[in-house]
User: Fold these one by one.
Assistant:
Number 1:
Amino acid sequence: MKIAIPVNDMREEAEVCVSFGRAPYFLIYDTNSKEVVFSRNKAAEAQGGAGIKSAQAIVDEKAKVLLTVRCGQNAAEVFNAAEVKVYKTTKVTAKENIEAFEKGELALMTQFHAGFHGKA
Amino acid sequence: MKVAVLSGKGGTGKTFVSVNLAVTAKESIYIDCDVEEPNGRLFLKPKNIKKEEVFTLLPQFLGEKCIGCRKCVDFCRFNALGFIKNIPLVFSEVCHSCGGCAIVCPSGAISETKRPIGVVEDGFYKSVRVITGELNVGETSGVPVIRTALDRTPINENITVIDCPPGSACTVMESVEIADYCVLVAEATAFGLHNFQMVYELVSLLQKPCGVVINKADGSYSHLESFCKERNIPVFCRIPYKENLAQIGAKAGIAVEEDGEMKEQFSELLGKIKREVEK
C-alpha cells in the first residue's frame, strides 16, 4: 500500500508541509517494498484549485492513504470519491509520521477546512 | 460618460458618493456593482422594478460518451475538474464557466447547463435609473452578475455612476473596465491611505484617469494630501465628518436632498469630474 505525505523537502526526514495543496513535494512511501519516492507538486503554483489538482495527483499515484497537517474540503471530496483515507499528522517529520501511522497511532482527519483562496 | 466610484476598503463612502452624484446629475444611471451587499437601493428606493435572473454555465458530463482521455481535466487552468474511478468530477465553485472543457472534449461528452447565481434589478428613483446587481448568498464569483448589470447601460447615456465593490480584486476590475473616469473615495487616516494606494495602483495599471474624494475628513491628513500632490491626482473635495450626515444616512436619506452644504458640494464635484473627463 502507498502512503502520500506533503513535504517541504525531498528527504525522508523532511518536515511535513503545513499546506497540502501548495506543498512543493509529495513523498510516496510503499509499505510493502519500503521504497520512498518523491514527486514535485505541479499544483503548488496553481492560480486556483490547487487542492483538487494535488488530490488528483495523489490518486493517480495510487496512494491509498494521505498523512497531512490539514486538508481542504475540495481535496477531501476527491479523496472521498477515490476512497483514499486522510490521517492527521502528529509529528514534525515525514519519517516520524510514517512510523506513527504504522503503529496505528494516527487518527483519521475529521475537520476539513474551506479554501484559503481569495477567489473572486 | 461613465464614472466608477471605488475605494480600497469598505465603509469609506463609495455608496454615499455614488448615490449623491447620481441624484445630483438628475438624468442619470446608478449601477450597484457591489453585488455581495448592494445597498444603494436602500437610499434610492427604486420603483417599477424589473428583475432579470443571472446564470452561469457549468459543464455536465454524459457518462456513456466519456472515453476517459482527461483532456478536459488537463485543460482546466482553474483545476475545477477531477477524474476519479473513471468518473469526471466537477467543482462548481471553482469553475469559471469558460466552456473550454466542452471544446476540447473529443467525444462530445460535455454539455453546459445553466445555474442561477443572482439577479439584476432595474427600476427608477425620480429620473435616476437604478440598476442593482445581487449575488446569491454562498456564491463565490460576482463577475457574471456585474457583467449583466453593466450590459444594461445604453450607449448614449448622460452620466452613469458605477458603485464598485470594495477592494482591488477581479470584481473591481470588472466594474471599472468600462469607466471613462474613476473617483477614488479615501478616508483621511493611515489605514485609509494604505487602502487608497492599492486602488490607485489598480486604476493606474488599467490606465484610467482618476481623482479623489476625501470622506470623513476631520481636518487634513498630510500623508494622503502629499501622496496625491506628488502624483498630480486631483483632490476634488473633502466631505466633513458631520453628525447631520450620519443622521441622514442612518434613516436612509439622501444627503444632497436634505443638506444644503452637501447639495452645493456635490454639484461642484460633478462639475469638476465632467471637466476632467472632457480634458
Number 2:
Amino acid sequence: MKMAHDMKDGVLDPVTFEVLKNAFATSVDLMSEQILRTCYSFVIYSRDFSSALCDAKGNTVMQGSGDIAVHVGTLHFQCKAVLEEFEGDIQQGDVFAINDPYRGGTHLNDVSFIRPIFVADEIIGFAQNKGHWADIGGNVPGSFDVNASTHFSEGLRITPIRVWREGTFLHDVAQLLVSNTRAPSQALGDLHAQAEATAVCEREILRLVDKYSKETVVAAMQETQDYVERIVLKSLAGMPQGEWETIDYMDADPALGEGMVPIRIKLKLDGNGIHYDLSGSAPAVSTFLNSAYGTTHSAIYAGTKTFFPDVPLNSGFYRAVTANIGEEGSVVNAGWPHAVTGFCSGPYEKIMNGIFELWSGIMPERAMACAFNLEYLLIGGNDGRTDTTTYFMWYDWMAGGWGGRQTKDGSSATSPVFGTGLAVQPVEGQERLNPVLTMCHEISMDSGGPGRFRGGCGVQKGGVLTKVDKTVMSYCCDRGRSVTWGVNGGLPSVPHGVWLNKGTSDEKYLGATFSNVSVQSGDTFTRPSAGGGGFGDPLERLPEEVLEDVIDGYVSVPRAECDYGVIIDVNDPDVDDYAIDAERTTKAREWIRAHRHEWLEAPPEDIASQYRDGKLDVLDVIRRFGVVLDWGTGELLKKSTQQYRESMRRRSSDYWA
Amino acid sequence: MPDLRVAVDAGGTFTDVCIYNSSTQEFRVTKVPSTPNNPMQAVLDGVKRGEIELADVDLFFHGTTVATNALITRRFPKASMVTTKGFRDVIEIRDGTKDNLWDAYADVSGPYIRRRDRFEVTERVDYAGEIVTPLDEQEARELARKLKRRGTTTIAVCFINSYANVQNEQRMREILEEEIPGANVSTSSGILPEIFEHDRFNTAVANTVLGPLVSDYVKQLDDELSAGGYANDLLLLHSGGGSMTPVMAKHYPVRLAASGIAAGAIAAKHIAEQCGYQNAVGLDMGGTSTDISLIHDGELRVTKQWGVEYGHPIVFPSIEVLTIGAGGGSLAHIDIAGALRNGPQSAGADPGPACYKRGGAEPTNTDANLALNRLGTSLAGGALELNRDMATAAIKEKIGQPLALETADAAQAILKVANANMADAVRLVSIRRGLDPRDFALIAFGGAGALHGAEVAKELGIPAVIVPPNPGVTSAMGCLLVDIQHDLSMMYTAGAESADTDDLTKQFRSLEEEAADRLRHEGVADKDVVLQRGISMRYQGQWRSLQVPMSSGEQSLKMAIETFHQEHERQFSFRQDTQPVEIYQLHLRAVGKTPKPSFTPYERVANATAEPHARRDVFFDGQWHDTPIYDRTILPPGFELTGPAIIDQLDSTTVVPPNTTASIDEWKNIRIRIVLTGEEA
C-alpha cells in the first residue's frame, strides 16, 4: 500500500483533493446507475431513490448528483441510527436496512440499505442508498393512507436491522421484511439490487484506498465536507446579515375545523452560517400530512440548495445550514407515532417555498414565487375489462407551474419541487394498465399567477372510469385553500382540488385531500395542478407580453382584462389577428390601480354570495378579493380568508404603488 | 470506371473530407472550414480542396449538421400540429422533468411547434384500438380550412393511441390533403407506430418540421453533385449508424440529426475490429467536448432514448454516445473555496485558449499541454501558431500562484484533473451497461484525444491505447464504413409463450416487404439486401423492455425467449424464469450493403528505425524529460519506441509518456502499451 505522500501537514495537495472529491461523486453515481439498471420497482426506476457515501461517523461525504430532492439531507441521519444501534458490532460484509421516519427517515416506503466499508479491521465509511418501494404494507395498496393518524396503518416500520451478516444473507430477516408488502418478489428484487449497489460504491472506495492510501482517502472525506462548508460560508460573505421571517400554511387540520395550519420559518444570516428556526409552527395534524425531523431537514436543505445549485451536498452543507425545528409534536417535528407519509404534500412543500421566498429577498437574481403543490391521485379497485378479477391501481401525479421569477416567467408544466427528476407517466401506458380513459391532459388557460412575470402554467387532467367495480379514489395534495401565492406584488394562481362529474347534476367538489371515495363506471373526474404564483405587479407586465400569451392560449381575453388590465381586440382569431387597445388598456389599468386595495377589504360574505350566485368565479374570488371558500358549496371560510388576506397583503398589495 | 469513394463530414467548425481510391486502396484526407450559413458551400469547398473529379466518384457519403442545427435554433419553416381534443400540449408538458435538477432558472427548451400552431379535433381511439369517438368530419374540414387560411402547408397529425389504430389519423390526413392542395402532411403512426404519446408525437413533430428544410438541402446538394458528374445517389449518414438516399431522407429527415456523432463511433468500432479487440472505448476529444462510445462484443450500443436536446425525444434507434463537457478548450479555474476545477465551461473558438492570443486570459487544457511542451507551438502544419508565453502566464497567474505551485506543476495539475474527469465519465457509461472498462482497449481520436489518451487509459487501468492514422478526421472515415440502413418497428403485444407464431411471421413479412420496398426505391440490388428481425420483450408487469435478435425458423420464438432471459441477466443482473414473458414490439433492420474500403495491411519493416526530427524538454511526473519529437508520416510499420516521446502530425499530436511503449502497427495505428501500477511491482 502506498504512503500518504500527497499530504503535507495533514493537508491534501490540490490535485489529489479534486480528483478524490470527483471520484467520491462518481462512486456514488455508479451506485445510482447500478440501481437504475437492476431495480424491479417502477417507482425506483422513475428516479425515486438516492445514494450517499458517509464517513466513519455517519456524516455524508457525497450525495448522488441525480438524487431526488426529498431525500436530501436524510441519509446521514439513517447512517447514524445504524451506528447508534450497532456500534462495536459491525463486521465486514454486513448490510443494514432502515426506513424508520422517527430515526431520520422520510416515509416508510423509502427503504435504505447501508454497508460498512472496511480497510483491514477499521471502518472508514458507509455506502448507502434509499429507494421508494412500490408497497410497504399498511391499509392501502401503495401504502399512502390519507386517513392514517399513526404509523401503524401506514405499513412496516423498519428500525435498524441487519440483512447480511459478514457476507451471509439472512434470508429469514429478508423474508419477514418482504412478506409485509403486497409485492414480495418485487420487494426482494429491490432489496438485492440496493444491497448489491452499495457493494459497487465500496469497491470504488477500496480502489481509491489502494491507489492513494487509507489516510489520504479518509482525509479527503473530511476535506470534502470542509470544502462544501467553506463554499457556503464564502458565498455568504457578500450577502447582508440579519433576520427574515415568513409564514406559509397548510389547508387545514380536519380535527380542528376550518382555519389554515401555520408553518413559521425564520432565517438568520450572521456570518457563521445559515440558521433557520421553525419552532413557531403548529402542532401535528390529525391526518398523515405531518413531517418528522428527517424530512423537515430535507426541506430546509433542498430549499436552501436551490439558491446554491452548484454546491455538492454533504454534511459540510449540513454544518453551514442549521435549524431549530422546535419541540417534538409539531407538524414539522411530528415524532412517534404520528402518521407522516403525506409529509411530501404537506409541510415539505410549505417549507421549501417559504425558503424560496426568504432567499428571494437576499438573492434577487434567483428569486421565485411559489410553485404548485405535489399531488397524487390514487384510484384502486377491480378492473372490469377482463372476466377475471384483476386489481388495478391508477397511481397518478402531475406536472404543474413554478413561480414567476425576477427576469422571466415561471416554468410551465414542470415536475414538483419535491423532485424535478420525477417523470409524469404517459397516458397511453396508463390506459393499457387501467380502466381509465383520460379525456384531457393539457395546459390550463389562466392557471399561471398574474405578475410582471407570470407564474408558469399548470395542467388539467381528467378522465372517465370505463369499467370498474368496488373502486375508490383518494387524493394526497394541499393548497386548495392556501392557494399558490405570488410575491413582490404578484398574484395567486389557482386552488388545487378534485371534481367528480363536473358539469353534471352529480357534480361534487372533493377537495385537495380526501380518501376512499366510492366511484362507479361512467364517473368522470378532473383536477388541475396549480400554476406558479406571479412575480411583480401584473399591471406592469408589458401589454405585448399579455398579447402573446393570449395568442398562445395561456391567458384568456377576459382574464387579460381582469388580471392585467390589458384590453385585447379579437379581430380574426383564426389567423392570430388580435390587437391591443392601448387607450382602453391605460384606463383599465388606472381603474384597477384605484380599486385593488379596497377589493382586498371587501366583506368576504358578499364575495362568497356572489360566487354562489355565479357572478364571480374562482379566479376573481382568490386573485381579486383574497377570499377563501369551499369551492364546491361556496361556503365562506372565515378564518382561512383572514389568514390568506394577511399573507396577500404582505406578498402582494404592499408592493403596489 | 469511377473508383473514388468520398466522405464529407460537416462539423460545427470544420468539414472533413476523406477520399478513398478503390483501385489503389489509397486514402487521402483534407479539411475546410464549415460554412454554417450555407452548409452546402463547405461540402463543395471540400470537393474542390480534395481535388475530386465528381465523375470519378463511385459513392459519395455525407454527414451533415443541417438537421441538428435547425432543431437547436428552431429555425425551420412554420409547421402545425393537429391532435386529439384534450391533448394539445403533449409536446409541451413532456414528462415534466428538468435536466438541471437544482437550478430553478435553468429551464428545459420549448417545444418544436408553438402552442398557437397546435390544434385539436374531436376523435378518440382507446388502448385496444377501438374507436371510442369517430373523427368529427365537419370539425376536421373546418380546421383544415382554417389551416389553409393560416398559410400552413406542413402538418403533423398526432392522435392518442394511433399506434393501435391508424384509421382516424389517416382520415384526418386525407381531409387536410383535400382542403390544402400541396400540403405536406404526416401522421405519427406513419412515422413511428409505437406506444407512448410524447415519444411518438415529438418524433413525428421533429420529423415534420425538418421535412421542407432537409429536402431542400438534400435536393440542392444532390443536384450539384449530379451536375458535377456524380452518377450515383448521395448517401446521407443517419444517427442509427447507416445511411440513406435523398428519397428516404425526405421521409425521415429527423434521422439525419446527430449523424456526425454516430460516424465517430462507427470509426472506433472499425479500428477496434482491425486491431483485434472485441471490446473498446472510443474517446473522441475535440475543442469543447468529448464523445465517449462503447464497443462490446464487437457491437456498438444502439439506444432509442435520445434527442438533440433534453426533453425532446427522437425515438429512432441511434448509436449511443455520451458527450461530456471536457475538451482542449475546457477552462481550469480555482473556485471560491479553493478547489482546482476543470470545465465544463470552455473557452470555445473565440476567444479560445490563452495561447491563441485572442484575448483569452483563463488557462485551458490546450494551454497546459503547451506549457508542458507536450504540444508544439505550430499546429496544422503552421496554419495555427500557439503562443507558449501566453499559456504559461495564464497558468502561472490563475492556477500556479493561488495554489503556490511552480507553473509546470500547475499545468500538470490541470491535466491530471481533466484526465481523471474523463476517466470518471467512462466509468459511468460502462457501469450503465454492466461492463468493466479495464477489459477494453481505448481508441483515442479527435483533435485532442491522442494528447490525453495514454493518461486517461492509465487512470482507468486500461493497458492498450490505439491512435488511428488520422485522428482529426476519423469521423469522416467512419462515413465510408456504413451501409444503407432502415430501422422499422411495430407494436405487437402478446404473451410470448402463447403467441400465434404464424401471425408473428405474417407481421414480420409485412415489415420486410415495406423495407425491401424502401431499399428497392433506393436502387439497392436484391443480392445486397440483408434483413434482420428483432423482437422486444419484457417480463409481465415490467416497464423496461429489451430488444433481442430473432431468426426466422420454427424455433425462432423459443430461441428469442431464451436469449431474452440471458440478455436480461447480463444487462440487469437478474432473470425470472418463472415470470411470464410478454412480446412488446417487432423490429426490422433492413440493410442495403454498400462496398467498403478494403484495407490491406502494410508490411511490417523488420528492425524498423526512424529518427526524431527534433528534441525538446517535456514535463512528465514532476520533472522535465529530454524527449524526442517524431514526424508520424515517416514512422514505418513495425517501428517501436519507448516513452517519453511526442509524435506530431498535421491534425494531431500523440503523447507517449515515460514508462510506456509505442509501436506502429500494420495499419499504421499507433499502439501505446501502458504499464499499470500492479505490473510495476
